[in-house]
């Protein structure tokens, strides 16, 4: 009889795992009895269940990489797991988890009576990485044109997006906040656009500079101010210049001394008038040491020159 149980009838039957345990054997006749204790073990092939080996695993990048999978069997089975397609065992406890660990693993439990297989899918979560921004159609935007800035980032769980950008009323964000669209670009839209991707494991930011160019005429800043000139074509001399040139030509007969004096006075007048009104002869400016070509094209409108006006 099993220890503590009822006696069992004689006869043969199929062995099950439930038959394992301690048994008491008692022999009796009219002269007395003898007792002996026997321990029965039942061996069986391996099996792998959900409790000891979940089919879905979630690892976090940077933590120790360890794929434990428990199996039942007698004798106790040996369990080995390999990533499908790799033919290699995953690192037991080191190195740390990387995104390359993600995939499906097959675990095999083996003993002298057979083997059992179970597939385990491993997902690896990680903080946002590789944040990239793209300006469409270009980061150099013409005034009045439309453009958009898109932000992309890798991460698991999928990151959420936030923006830091020049404040302007003409901004429209996408439903998932991954992009911002700008209609009729103005000076307020130029500047640094920064996108931050965030999930529960961390955050990462990226930036891009947007330049908004507008057509600018000859604008005088007064003494010491800067002037930007679009040289699509050299303008004719200003009216004051024409008047003085005609006057000088008509007075050529007055003599060299008089002509030189008038020319000097005319030059002073032209320079002071240009400083006051912001007018400047572009063709003269291009050959002057006071003008520096910025080497920028404005859509077939010529090069841009910067002119520094000085105290007359």
From TrEMBL:
MF term (GO), any: integrin binding
Domain Ig-like: residue ranges: 46-123, 128-211
Pfam families, alphabetized: Ig_2 (PF13895), Ig_3 (PF13927)
Keywords (A to Z) from UniProt: Membrane, Transmembrane, Transmembrane helix
Origin superkingdom: Eukaryota
Cell wall biogenesis/degradation as UniProt keyword: no
Gene3D superfamilies referenced in this protein's UniProt entry, alphabetically: Immunoglobulins
Stretches that traverse the bilayer: 244-270
A single GO cellular-component term on record: plasma membrane
Any single biological process term in GO: cell adhesion
Protein name: ICAM5 protein
Gene that produces this protein: Icam5_1
């Amino acid at each position: 009889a099993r220890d503590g149980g009822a006696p069992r009838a004689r006869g043969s039957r199929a062995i099950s795992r439930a038959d394992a345990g301690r048994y008491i054997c008692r022999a009796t006749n009219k002269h007395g009895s003898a007792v002996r204790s026997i321990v029965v073990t039942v061996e069986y092939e391996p099996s792998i269940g959900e409790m000891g080996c979940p089919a879905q695993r979630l690892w976090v990048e940077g933590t120790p990489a360890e794929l434990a999978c428990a199996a039942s069997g007698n004798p106790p089975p040996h369990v080995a797991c390999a990533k499908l397609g790799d033919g290699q065992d995953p690192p037991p406890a080191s190195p740390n988890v990387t995104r390359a660990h993600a995939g499906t693993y097959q675990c095999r439990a083996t003993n002298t009576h057979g083997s059992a297989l179970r597939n385990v899918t491993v997902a690896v979560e990680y903080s946002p990485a590789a944040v990239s921004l793209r300006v469409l159609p270009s980061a150099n935007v013409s005034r009045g044109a439309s453009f958009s800035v898109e932000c992309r980032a890798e991460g698991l769980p999928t990151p959420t997006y936030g923006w830091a950008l020049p404040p302007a009323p003409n901004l429209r964000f996408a439903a998932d906040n991954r992009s911002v669209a700008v209609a009729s670009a103005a000076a307020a839209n130029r500047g640094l656009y920064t996108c931050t991707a965030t999930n529960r494991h961390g955050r990462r930011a990226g930036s891009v500079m947007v330049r908004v160019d507008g057509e600018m005429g000859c604008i005088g800043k007064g003494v010491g101010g800067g002037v930007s000139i679009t040289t699509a074509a050299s303008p004719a001399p200003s009216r004051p210049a024409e008047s003085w040139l005609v006057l000088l030509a008509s007075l050529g007969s007055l003599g060299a001394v008089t002509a030189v004096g008038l020319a000097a006075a005319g030059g002073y007048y032209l320079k002071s008038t240009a400083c006051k009104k912001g007018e400047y002869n572009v063709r003269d400016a291009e050959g002057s040491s006071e003008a520096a070509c910025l080497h920028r094209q404005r859509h077939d409108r010529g090069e841009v020159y910067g002119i520094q006006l000085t105290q007359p």
